[in-house]
Amino acid sequence: MTRIGILGTGRVGTHLAAKLSAAGHHVTLGARNPEDAAHASPPSSRITFADQRTTARTADVVINATPGDSSLDRLTDLRGELGGTILIDVSNATLDDDDGLPGALCYPDSSLAEQLQAALPDTQVVKTLNTMLFMVMTAPETLTTPPTAYLSGDDAHAKRTVTALLGDLGWRPEQIEDLGGITTARATEAMILVVPHILRRHGFKPFAVSLTR
Question: What pTM does this model have?
């Protein structure tokens, strides 16, 4: 059992919490208002709620499910609490178009994951699960074509830990593509720019930007 902290209690965070807790992990959801978040979410003996600082301090693995355009400031403020942990970054830092869908990257010559790794040198950042709609993160088997979960990170041990957790979410080894170091995250984060065009044409249906062979 791994102590997993999830920063963010929206659709991404709560979906990940439910699946990881069902797999036997103890999950803490970190919220700005923990009591309000607890009342809004279904109860589970393996899911607890805390403020984000406590969540980061007490977890072995932390998942960043906060809005990507504000993640860097939020997590930099938790630098001390995140020291020595593995940080799984599933967010995309984008600027929205008028319709609220992603229109441009906040870090066009870099990536959110790279910015986080630079700001958190004592934390092992791994980028993954950012190239799909949130429901696919926890149910890859629901797509007709097997999707891909890309991995980017500098620490081999951290990536092995994240790969094991992806398995608990339903991802098979052949569906996981290790791209290399953290700088490769700028490639997968750029993939988010195709998402609004797909959503405008087909609506909010599950899909992933995947590698097929």
Answer: 0.94
